Amino acid sequence: MALTGIQIYKLLPQTNCKECSYPTCLAFAMKLAAKQAELSACPYVTEEAKKQLAESSAPPIRLVTLKSAGGEVKAGNETVLFRHEKTFYNKPGLFIKVKASEGAAAIQARVAEIDAFKVGYVGIDLSVDGFAVEADGGDFAAAVKAVRAGTKRPLILVGKDVAVLDAGLAALAGEAPMVHGADASNWEAMTDLAKKHAASLVITGDNLETIADLTEKVKARGLEDIAIDLKAAGMGAHLGLSTQVRRLALKNFRSLGHPLVAFASGSGGRDAVYAAHAIAKYAGFVVLDRFAPELLYPLLVLRQNIYTDPQKPIQVQPGIYEINHPKAESPVLVTTNFSITYFSVANEVEGSGLPAWLLVCDAEGMSVLTAWAAGKFDAERIAKSVKGSDIAGKVAKKRLVLPGHVAVLSGELEAELPDWEIRVGPREAVDLPAFMKQAL
Ligand code: SF4
Q1: What is the span of the domain harbouring residue 368?
Q2: Does residue 101 share a domain with residue 245?
Q3: Can you spell out the DSSP letters for 173-192?
Q4: pTM, to two decimals
Q5: Contact, 256 vs 215, CB < 8 A?
Q6: Tens digits of residue pLDDT in 287-327
């Protein structure tokens, strides 16, 4: 049975030396109990304690990290089956596949274009995380170099021929790439190859018994950084296997406690559905066959939403935001600091071309109605935001527009801000431009 944080703490040296990168032994013990840290991070644990801590020390799903000069992609360390039980920690990396047969020049140009792709979502820049290079013929080492010339992001090298992969990996010295894929026929050579290049290794298989057997063999040969690619006939079967792997891993079945790799392919949008399924259930690395902004954007947003801590809403900084160069006669619109609420309002007003001051109140990251119901967005708080900002000195006409959903606050707000004209705006952000044109 897993130990509690306090039980683990009693087995630690209790010197608070911080070498594990946590401020105290207790903080480290809590992380161990939550399976978000590894016991090896503390160099002072006694052999006796190590034995007792063996079960509690390792996360049920091993953390696998791909590194390059352009960043890193982490997968694993998850502790729950459903996000609402706690949260998911490491967003699955989204990779785009290129084939060596495309030729070095074409690869470099395409990779550079994809590398530059960036979209904004509620104030966050989203982009792909890396590339997979498939050895399907041609000069593989040249293809890997061409990819590296077009991007600095982490790579997954895909192939079966150990000598060919070896040549490609030689171009990635000093990095921690991933190699795909080992199976029953080549696992020994692939393991040695991955160890030689400090790479992680993907094991492929179509049933859990074979995969579990292979992971144990690879670990016995000295490689721990393993991921799993489940080969299933169809999306339903893949979902079933992915769920079984996650369930078993969370029950501390170590042989399957590794991140999953999913290859999303298919025509007619099937690849999009496959990738969405993999992001939700339970891939750590998702490889897409093609790049298209209309494919990437919804997947990146889906991933962002699933991997946001449900207990910590995405927030923007409270304060005054200027939209379309407001002047002294422009109205002051009020909203909360929940990101999606802020961007809904800001985008509608910005798109209309009408100038406005947007007063964002600190409502602990909640949307308007939720914050009002929780007592975090009331007349007193709004008045405090107005008085705490310098907005009164910026406007000639003191007009404050409340969201229509909290029209009930207008009377109280008039009492709090007697020198301001309080107006009730529309309920939905989409109706703001028309309201501003007609009523202000
Ligand atoms: S390294 Fe070990 S002894 Fe030092 S603070 Fe961390 S847990 Fe405590």
Answers
A1: 319-439
A2: yes
A3: TT-B-EEEEE-TTTHHHHHH
A4: 0.78
A5: yes
A6: 999 999 999 999 999 999 999 888 887 889 999 999 999 99
Say whether pLDDT at 67 is over 60.
yes
Domain's final residue, options 17, 40, 57 = 57
Q: Which of 289, 294, 287, 295 is nearest to 259 (CA)?
A: 287
Give the model's pLDDT for residue 314. 82
Which phi and psi (to 5°) does residue 98 adopt? Answer: -125, 155
Last residue of a domain, one of 14, 32, 57: 57
* Buried b / exposed e along 114-145 (16+ C-beta atoms within 10 A): bbebeeebbeeebebbbbbbbbeeebbbbbbb
Take atom 4 of ligand 1 and give the residue whose Cα is closest.
17
> Closest Cα to atom 2, ligand 1: which residue?
42
- If you measure from the C-alpha of residue 48 to the centroid of ligand 1, how many angstroms do you get, rounded to a whole number? 16
Q: Are residues 49 and 135 in the same domain?
A: no
> Looking at the structure, do residues 331 and 263 belong to the same domain, yes or no?
no
In this structure, the answer to whether residues 276 and 339 fall within a common structural domain is no
9 lines ligand 1 (CB under 6 A): no
